[in-house]
Amino acid sequence: MAAVLVQYVVLRGDLARPPLSWPLGAVVAQGCHAALAAVHGYREHPDTGAYLEQGDAMTTVVLEVMAAPRGMMGNNFLKKFGIFPHGIRNNSLTKFGIFAH
Q: Whole-prediction pTM value?
């Protein structure tokens, strides 16, 4: 059985709450940018091609962290959810990647 490919986008929840109080659109834009940048950054990786070939069956899961203490949004954070990434990229305030699940 082939691995199920899921794109995970991890967003900082504190961005939308005081004192930062980002508008919802700005937080959504961060997630959209992260998802697209991950696909672009890993466009040559076979898992990315396989993920995109799923078409309407592509799955993206958005996870929230309350804030981003140093190292919280890296691979160790994702492993707490049972997500074992083979590659992760950093896009300013957002971490993202496409992972075999």
A: 0.69
Instruction: State the Cα torsion 47-51-53-59 to the nearest 10°.
Output: 170
Amino acid at 94: T
Domains observed in the chain: 5-100 (3.40.1490)
β 89-91/94-100 pair status: antiparallel
H helix intervals, the chain: 24-41, 46-53, 75-79
CA distances from 34 to 1, 8, 18 (A): 29, 10, 23
30: nearest Cα among 17, 52, 48, 12:
12
55: alpha, beta or left, given left = phi > 0 and alpha = psi -120 to 50?
A: left
| Low-confidence residues in the chain, pLDDT < 50 | 87, 90-96, 100-101
